[in-house]
Design goal:
Helices cover 39% and strands 26% of the residues. The chain has helices spanning 2-21, 49-58, 80-97, 114-129, 148-161; strands at 33-37, 43-48, 62-67, 74-78, 103-108, 133-139, 166-175, 178-185. It has a four-stranded mixed beta sheet with strand order 2-1-4-3. Strand 1 and strand 2 form a beta hairpin.
């Protein structure tokens, strides 16, 4: 029983926290007076809360507390349902306009044959065109580890081959048995058609 009552009290506290995010409106505003702002943004001045509520009813609007920490609190006459709907629309639009950065990974061997290189390069081109970053990893095995310049040259060649679509965001660096480079797309070229440069 003790466990459940503790969980209930936490749940109640969370509900109170979530409720407190919403502004107080109409009868929930319990201060004696407010600084009132009209529906068109005009300053009406300090009036009793009862007077502010009467004005809201006459205009068929809600009285919404917009600055609860002010002394006295600032309230505005508005259609609260419409205001909430428009705020939700704006938030949704802002989320839609956010660019979600995805990092794709492409793995190569230092002694990759030309056909495989072209295939892998094609994938990198496609990722960059889609607006994704690409982490290119050169995997060294056995004796290849003593020849890091092979991996470096391969990464440089790849960066040059896709230069029209992306730039080096993180220069090639050794990471244990691997060498890693990160390519990022040009912002203005995300919607451009594929450009496959000839292998150098």
């Amino acid at each position: 029983m003790q466990y459940r009552s503790a969980a209930d009290s936490i749940r109640t506290r969370l509900q109170e926290d979530s409720i407190s995010v919403e502004p107080r409106i109409n009868d929930r505003i319990r201060v004696p007076e407010v600084r009132l702002v009209g529906a068109a943004g005009e300053q009406i001045g300090i009036v009793s809360t009862g007077e502010a509520l009467r004005r809201a009813q006459e205009a068929d609007l809600d009285l919404v507390e917009v600055a609860p920490d002010a002394r006295p609190p600032v309230c505005k006459l508005m259609d609260y349902g419409k205001f909430k709907y428009e705020s939700a629309q704006k938030a949704r639009e802002a989320r839609r306009n956010q660019v979600l950065t995805v990092i794709k990974e492409m793995k190569l061997r230092p002694k990759i044959d030309p056909h495989d290189y072209e295939t892998k390069k094609g994938h990198v081109v496609r990722f960059l065109q889609a607006g994704d970053k690409v982490k290119v990893t050169i995997m060294f095995r056995g004796r290849e580890q003593s020849r890091p310049e092979l991996g470096f040259r391969l990464l440089q060649r790849l960066a040059q081959d896709v230069a029209e679509l992306g730039v080096i965001e993180s220069a090639p660096k050794q990471d244990g048995r691997n060498m890693i480079m990160v390519l990022a797309p040009h912002k203005q070229q995300r919607a451009r058609p594929a450009v496959t440069a000839a292998a150098g």
